[in-house]
Write a structure and sequence with these properties.
heterodimer, A: alpha/beta, Rossmann fold, 2 domains, 6-stranded mixed beta sheet, 3-stranded antiparallel beta sheet, globular, B: 299 residues, mainly alpha, MetI-like fold, 12 helices
C-alpha cells in the first residue's frame, strides 16, 4: 500500500534537492536514520517534512506541513471545511501523491475509515469485515471467527448477517471500524467518521474508539471539524489553517484537562474562535 | 456470475448463536401466505389487462365489416393452435429457436464480459473502440443477415453470427455503464485494503457493477431474440432447422393470417417468459441485496 506514495514521491519530490535525497531513502524502504521522537518518547509512526499538495495547476491545498506523530499517539487534525484535512489523510493513506516534500508512514500502510462507512452494500456486516481479512491474506478458515470477534469488539454481536442498508448509521460506522481493525495496521486513519451521527451515538462510539485505541495501542490520526470531539479523543490537536492548509497550531490535551470541564470548555472556545477565523478566510479567499 | 451473488446462504443460521445472543427469529408463519399474495399481486394486473385486450380485439373483429381471414379475432387465432401442437410443429420450432437464442446469448455473454472488463481497464482501447461498439448497438442486426448468408450460407453459423453481432455490443455497453457508475470511493477502498487488480475486479468491481450488468444482459437477451427472429425469417431452407421465425415465413407464404398472428403471440410469450422467469427475479434480488426496489414492487 505504501508503494503509490513512494513512487509519487520519487516522481514529484524533485522540487528540492534535499527532498530528493530523502525520498530516495524512502523509496528504498529505509526510514531516515535517527527517527525523531515526540514528547512521549516513542519512535515516530508518521513523519511529514515540508509536505505539499496541489491538484493540477490549482492553488496549493497543503503547504509545508512538518509533523511527527509518535507510535501509539492519538492525534486529531482539526480544521474548517475545505482546509485540506481529507487530502492530508489521503496522502497518509497512499491514495494521493504529495507534490512536494515527503511523508514517512509505516511500511505496511495504514487502515482508513471513511466518512460515510463505504461498506459494500451487497455484503453482510461479517462479509464486509471478512473482505478486509481476505485481502490481508488471512486464510479462509480463520476469516469467519475473526470477523465475528471484531464485530463483537465494536458491540455488533447480533448484526453479523445484516446488510448495510439494514443497519443504522452508527452501526454502519461500527462495521467500518471493525473492517479497519481487520486490516491490523499500526496506523489507523479516520476521516470524520462520526460526523453524520447523532450526538448520543457519537458519544458511545467515542468511548468505544478510545477503548479500542487503548487495547490495540495503534497510532490514530483522526480528522474532524468538531472541536469538542477533538478535545475528547486526542492527545494532541493539530489545527490546520485554510488556503493553503498549513499547521496553524498544535495543542496538547492531557487527561487532566479532559476531566476538567472548565479547562476543556476554555480550550474549546479558543479553538472554535481560531476555526471561525480560518473559515472566514477560506470563504472570502479568491478562488 | 452467480458465485458472486451467492453471498447470502449457508453460515447464516448458526452465526447469531455463536455470539451467545440468539437473534429473535422474525415471524415466519406468514411467509407462504405472503408469497401467495405477492404472486397474486404480480400476476393479477397483467392477466386482467390481457383479458381486456383480447375482449376488445374479439369484439372489434366481430363488429368489423372486413373479411374474417383479413381481420381474425382471438378465437380464429386460437383455433390454429391445436393443429400446430398436434403435428409437433410448434414444439419443434420453439425448441429450435429457444435453443439457438439461449446458446447464442450465452456465447455473447462469455465473449462480451471479458471484453467489457478489458475496455473498462484500458482507457486508450475504450477511446478507440468504444464509439464503434455503441454504433454497432444502433445498427439493426437484421442488416447483417444478407452478409452472413453470403459468408456462411444457409447454416446455423449464419443465425449465430447475427445473434452475436446484435447481443455482444449491448452486453459490453451495459457492463461498461455499470462499471462507470461505481462510486469512486470503492477504488480508494480497494487500494486501502490492499486489493490487487484482479481481486478488485472480482470482489468489488463486478459485484458493484451487477445492476448495470443485469440491465445490459437483459437488453442483450432482447437483442439476441430479435436478431434470431429476423435471421430465421429471412434465412430459410438449406441445413437450417425450422424455428419460430421460419414458421412466420410459412404463414406468410400460405397467406394464413391467424397462423402469423399466433406465431407473433408465441414470440411475445417466449420473450415475456424469459423476462419473468430469469431477469425479473434476478434483478429483484440484486436490488433487494442493496436495499433497493423496483418501482412496481413499491407498497
Amino acid at each position: 500500500m505504501s508503494a503509490p506514495v513512494d513512487t509519487a514521491i520519487a516522481q514529484h519530490a524533485d522540487q528540492h534537492a534535499a527532498d530528493q535525497r530523502t525520498a530516495d531513502q524512502r523509496t528504498a524502504g529505509l526510514a531516515p536514520a535517527g527517527r525523531t521522537a515526540d514528547q512521549r518518547g516513542a519512535p515516530a509512526a508518521v513523519e511529514l517534512h515540508g509536505l505539499g499538495l496541489r491538484y493540477g495547476d490549482g492553488p496549493p491545498v497543503l503547504d509545508g506541513l512538518d509533523l511527527s506523530i509518535a507510535e501509539g499517539e492519538f492525534v486529531a487534525v482539526l480544521g474548517a471545511s475545505g482546509c485540506g484535512k481529507s487530502s492530508l489523510l489521503n496522502v497518509l493513506a497512499g491514495l494521493t501523491a504529495p507534490t512536494a516534500g515527503w511523508v514517512d508512514v509505516p511500511v505496511d500502510g495504514a487502515a482508513l475509515m471513511f466518512q460515510d462507512s463505504a461498506l459494500l452494500p451487497w455484503l453482510t456486516a461479517q462479509r464486509n469485515v471478512e473482505l478486509a481479512l481476505r485481502l490481508a491474506g488471512v486464510p479462509r478458515a480463520e476469516r469467519g471467527p475473526r470477523a465475528r470477534r471484531l464485530l463483537d469488539t465494536v458491540h455488533l454481536g447480533r448484526a453479523y448477517d445484516r446488510k448495510p442498508h439494514e443497519l443504522s448509521g452508527g452501526m454502519r460506522q461500527r462495521v467500518a471500524l471493525a473492517r479497519a481493525l481487520a486490516q491490523d495496521r499500526r496506523l489507523l486513519l479516520m476521516d470524520e467518521p462520526f460526523a453524520a451521527l447523532d450526538a448520543i451515538t457519537r458519544d458511545l462510539l467515542h468511548d468505544e474508539l478510545h477503548a479500542v485505541w487503548r487495547a490495540t495501542g495503534s497510532t490514530i490520526v483522526f480528522v474532524t471539524h468538531n472541536v469538542r470531539e477533538a478535545i475528547r479523543l486526542a492527545g494532541r490537536i493539530v489545527v490546520l489553517s485554510s488556503d493553503p492548509g498549513r499547521i496553524a497550531e498544535i495543542r496538547t490535551v492531557t487527561d487532566g484537562l479532559r476531566a476538567d470541564p472548565a479547562r476543556a470548555e476554555a480550550l474549546a472556545t479558543e479553538l472554535t474562535e481560531t476555526l471561525r477565523k480560518e473559515q472566514k478566510k477560506h470563504d472570502s479567499a479568491p478562488r | 456470475m452467480t458465485a458472486l451473488l451467492d453471498d447470502r446462504p449457508a453460515r447464516g443460521a448458526s452465526a447469531p448463536s455463536d455470539a451467545g445472543a440468539p437473534a429473535p427469529a422474525p415471524a415466519r408463519p406468514t411467509a407462504r401466505n405472503r408469497r401467495a399474495r405477492d404472486l397474486t399481486r404480480r400476476a393479477l394486473p397483467p392477466t386482467a389487462a390481457l383479458l381486456v385486450l383480447l375482449s376488445v380485439w374479439q369484439l372489434a373483429s366481430w363488429a368489423s365489416p372486413v373479411r374474417d381471414d383479413l381481420f381474425p379475432g382471438p378465437v380464429d387465432v386460437a383455433a390454429v393452435l391445436p393443429r400446430l401442437i398436434a403435428d409437433g410443429t410448434l414444439a419443434a420450432a420453439v425448441g429450435t429457436s429457444l435453443g439457438r437464442g439461449l446458446s447464442g446469448f450465452l456465447i455473447a455473454l462469455v465473449v462480451a464480459t471479458p471484453a467489457a472488463l478489458l475496455l473498462a481497464h484500458t482507457p486508450w482501447l475504450r477511446r478507440a473502440v468504444g464509439p464503434f461498439i455503441s454504433a454497432l448497438q444502433v445498427l439493426p442486426s437484421v442488416a447483417w443477415v444478407p452478409a452472413a448468408i453470403i459468408v456462411f450460407g444457409l447454416t446455423d453459423a449464419t443465425i449465430y453470427a447475427v445473434i452475436l453481432l446484435g447481443a455482444i455490443p449491448s452486453i459490453i455497453n451495459g457492463l461498461l455503464a455499470g462499471i462507470d457508475l461505481i462510486p469512486a470511493q470503492y477504488r480508494s477502498l480497494s487500494r486501502v485494503l490492499g486489493a490487487r487488480r484482479l481481486q478488485h475486479i472480482a470482489l468489488i468491481e463486478l459485484p458493484a457493477a451487477l445492476p448495470g450488468y443485469a440491465a445490459g444482459l437483459r437488453q442483450g437477451w432482447a437483442f439476441s431474440w430479435r436478431s434470431l427472429m429476423a435471421a430465421e425469417l429471412i434465412a430459410v431452407g438449406g441445413s437450417l432447422g425450422l424455428g419460430v421465425g421460419s414458421l412466420l415465413q410459412r404463414g406468410r407464404d400460405l397467406a394464413d393470417l391467424p397462423l402469423v398472428i399466433l406465431v407473433v403471440l408465441v414470440i411475445l410469450a417466449i420473450g415475456a417468459a424469459v423476462e419473468l422467469a430469469l431477469f425479473a427475479p434476478w434483478e429483484r434480488r440484486l436490488l433487494a441485496d442493496r436495499g433497493l426496489k423496483r418501482t412496481e414492487d413499491a407498497a
